Amino acid sequence: MAGGVYVGGGGGSSYEGGVTIFVIFTCVVAAMGGLLFGYDLGISGGVTSMESFLSKFFPSVFHKMKNETANQNQYCKFDSQLLTLFTSCLYIAALVASFFASSVTRKFGRKISMFVAGLVFLLGSILNGIANNIIVLIIGRLLLGIGVGFANQSVPVYLAEMAPTKIRGALNMGFQMAITIGILMAGLVNFGTAKIKGGYGWRVSLALAAVPSFMMTLAAIFLPDTPNSILERGNPEKAKKMLKKIRGTDNVDNEFQDLLAATDAAQKVENQWTNITQPRYRPQLVICILVPFFQQLTGINVIMFYAPVLFMTLGFGDEASLMSTVITGGVNMVATLVSILAVDKFGRRVLFLQGGVQMILCQIAVGVMIGMKFGLSGVGSFTKTEANWILFSICAYVAAFAWSWGPLGWLVPSEICPLEIRSAGQAINVSVNMLFTFIIGQVFLSMLCHLKFGLFFFFAGFVIIMTIFIAFFLPETKNVPIEEMNRVWKAHWFWGKYIPDEAVNFGRQDKVVV
């Protein structure tokens, strides 16, 4: 099989201990960091469709929207670089912050990074809520971006390190689940605040970002740090005590010895950034770059933060656009729950491949329906039945993403890197994700204006490429302990040549078949 399959035969793949209430509670609380990212993804699109917000900060877009005629090109009516900058500048800040967060996460622990994330995001949400000009608005967005960068750097690593191997996928996906809850919450908030008389509904929407950020800040104060992080900072007795607590047993010697060996290897590394470029880490480097790159080229975030604008472009009314966004947000959350239940049973590859095929079919369907109705001129409108079919196809696409590339795009990079390059690998993952989120967010409305319905075929083409990549180049990592992941790469038909024999950890007698 091209991907390779790992079969544990004892040893490191059968550590003592079980699933404790303590570890589930800490992982659920930590996963709330995803609320920051999710709420922002969902809130920005709804706010940018509110007339009171557009008239105050983006009057040119507002006048173009109000002065539309029957023959107006629907593809181009929201095309504004300043409007997209409001949405996408957050992700450039997150990109830069992720590199600083990498050092903070390694030197001071995962929970310190989570605390910084919550605090800075809180400040940004306050600024956005009181903004009276575009400069304050953008500064607030930049602070939100710093918070997102720190949260996305630290939370997935925290979850991967705290979770027992057999449910690592499900607990790590709590981060993506929190993102989807944040998106749904934002959709509901926008739907409610759009009805507020007086034109200040957008302020309420933006300021309410303070709620998840306050929760994150408070949680980070009380959460314990991971045994890996404690050990990395030179406290072996405290690390072993924490490992016993999260595993619910005193017999943690095997796992602790693996952590010690990984920590010793990590401490010999003077510079993670130089180290990760070595051939022996080529699989991890490629995956940490291509998975977040491909995740953004699915086109999902243009649906998430421009959903109300997109639905209005397709002829939905103001209220119908916001309600459609709530519907897609609900589908997103439910489908992520499906992924949590399935990921440790069926594995990562099955979800990646099935989700990819479904997204391809849905994007082609949406492109065809829009093309038949609007053509190249962009003039036209949908009947109620046709609009419902569009909404159904977009929901099916969102569902496919939510049980595949959504959660797995964060899970897989966080679980494949050995400790000596883990912070650097996650920083690369976050920075590539944020860079292409920024690029796609910044150019989407212009792409819609110029590529028209072909935009959906553009994204479908990339999903075909990424699905082929997964089929041939990503091995299955289900039920593989993090510290023994090199066994999987060594057994892979392509990546095996990069992994030296001494990198296969600890000489365990597990079997690997391909």
UniProtKB/TrEMBL annotation:
Family matches, as Pfam families: Sugar_tr
Gene3D superfamilies: MFS general substrate transporter like domains (1.20.1250.20)
One GO CC term on file: membrane
Transmembrane feature ranges: 19-39, 82-100, 112-131, 137-159, 171-194, 200-223, 285-309, 321-343, 350-370, 390-412, 424-447, 453-474
Family note: Belongs to the major facilitator superfamily. Sugar transporter (TC 2.A.1.1) family.
Domain called Major facilitator superfamily (MFS) profile: residue spans: 26-478
Keyword list, A-Z: Membrane, Sugar transport, Symport, Transmembrane, Transmembrane helix, Transport
Keyword presence, Membrane: yes
Name recorded for this polypeptide: Sugar transport protein 10-like
Organism: Pyrus ussuriensis x Pyrus communis
Membrane disposition: Multi-pass membrane protein
